[in-house]
Design a protein that fits this description.
Number of domains: 1
Largest sheet: 14 strands, antiparallel, barrel
CATH topology: Porin
Number of helices: 7
Distance between the termini: 46 Å
CATH architecture: Beta Barrel
CATH class: Mainly Beta
Shape: elongated
Order of helices and strands: HHHEHHEEHHEEEEEEEEEEEEE
Strand content: 35-45%
Strand order of the largest sheet: 1-2-3-4-5-6-7-10-11-12-13-14-15-16
Oligomer: single chain
Length: about 425
């Protein structure tokens, strides 16, 4: 079931990219360079990545080594949080249900009692366990000029979570079998359940930016990214005996909503040699909401609301011939959709450069949101690292992410000159 589940997620992403060019999740899209620097980018993004981070950076100065053309083809990242192996647990539970049912049908009371005890233990361990998968793709092309800069971008990402929930009525039902009451219909009466929630946002857009020279010698960049957006949710809940993860993206489980939106960004370069840059971006200026499907209220399934509301982020960076240092803060909180935390990130990132041929990157970010009632994967402190290689304008960027809850990786091919 695990392989089928992951394959199903891959098919959903692939079909979305093929039919709409892009898909971006409620988690903010980012380049592999940004991924390796704790998700920062508002004050440091290269032109090709400006549509993901801050459209104003499309017109910013990048030491003249990537100011003429930028390409991302493609950028991919994945993150995995599966400490409890929830979907695997459902496989094991279904096997034990079959064992209990077989023992009852053959009137093997001792085996039925032992298997019922094992099933009760499995269901208790299964309660509130969560598995989460993130997978993403990105494409972009940028052409900066002295008068005006333009870029086309698309982003693809899907977040899916699977969660287990133990129903207390099953405790009594299984204890009765352990005490010798063999119920031939017990498997149809089990109420413990598994749920899959998936959410995504389809995005295709263009970024426009311009740099203005100020009288004091500093420069101001402004950017605008109009885009097409489609929200998607998938919600599937079923008892453990009938759970099939292949059904999570059926038409009955999916909801959609489309519309136009836009991002606004600004960047201010100042100081000696304009080594300092302060940036700010407002993503998704027009609020968009979408309710999920809830086809099984009798199993406790409730509608959830996917919210794509304005997200304001500010950052500052210092760059030199051989380094970039940056700090970034979300000024607004992003509300969780599934079994996860609300997020409001404070991030620090660094990049050390070796004559434009190689880059070493690292970062750390911490979630400032209060999540005392968290019922899924915790989002606290994440560490990131990565490398970049550049040869004759071609680029390869690799990133990695580590935390108490998850691991992740990113890779990107592109060009800049």
């Amino acid at each position: 079931m695990t392989n089928n589940h992951l394959n199903k997620l891959s098919i959903v992403i692939g079909l979305s990219v093929a039919t709409t060019t892009a898909m971006a999740s409620p988690q903010q899209p980012m380049s592999s360079r940004s991924f390796a620097m704790a998700g920062t980018g508002v004050a440091i993004a290269h032109p090709a990545a400006a549509g993901m981070s801050n459209p104003a950076m499309l017109a910013a100065d990048n030491h003249n080594w990537s100011d003429d053309f930028g390409l991302i083809l493609p950028s991919a990242n994945a993150r995995f949080a599966d400490e409890e192996k929830t979907v695997d647990q459902i496989d094991d539970i279904q096997d034990t249900i079959d064992d209990v049912q077989t023992a009852i049908n053959s009137l093997d009371q001792e085996e039925a009692q032992q298997s019922a005890g094992e099933l009760r233990r499995q269901l208790n361990d299964f309660d509130r366990d969560v598995t989460r998968v993130d997978a993403g793709l990105g494409l972009a092309v940028a052409v900066p000029t002295e008068t005006a800069s333009v870029a086309f971008f698309s982003n693809a990402n899907l977040r899916a979570t699977a969660r287990g929930e133990f129903d207390e009525s099953d405790e009594q039902r299984l204890q009765a079998i352990e005490n010798g009451a063999l119920d031939p219909n017990f498997s149809d009466e089990l109420q413990s359940r598994g749920s899959i929630l998936a959410s995504g946002v389809i995005e295709v857009g263009v970024s426009l930016a311009r740099s203005l020279e100020l009288e004091n010698g500093d420069s101001l960049q402004i950017g605008f990214s109009p885009k097409y957006v489609q929200l998607r949710t998938f919600q599937y809940t079923e008892t453990v005996s009938g759970f099939e993860d292949d059904d999570f993206d059926s038409d009955d489980s999916e909801t959609k909503k489309s519309g136009l939106n836009f991002d606004l960004g600004a960047a201010y370069s100042f100081g000696e040699d304009k080594a300092w840059t302060a940036g700010a971006v407002v993503r998704n200026v027009i609020p968009m909401d979408l309710e999920s499907a809830a086809n099984h209220p009798e199993l406790g399934e409730e509608k959830r609301k996917l919210k794509l509301h304005p997200l304001v982020t500010a950052g500052i960076a210092h760059k030199g011939d051989f380094h970039v240092l940056t700090a970034e803060l979300d000024l607004t909180e992003k509300e969780a959709f599934g079994y996860e935390d609300d997020t409001q990130w404070l991030a620090l990132g660094a990049e050390f450069d070796a004559f434009r041929y190689a880059q070493l990157r690292a970062g750390i970010r911490h979630n400032l949101s209060s999540n005392d009632n968290n019922d899924g994967v915790e989002e606290r402190t994440q560490l990131t690292a990565g490398i970049g290689l550049s040869v004759f304008g071609a680029r390869l960027d690799i990133g990695a992410l580590f935390s108490d809850a998850e691991v992740g990786a990113a890779i990107e091919l592109g060009a800049a000159f």
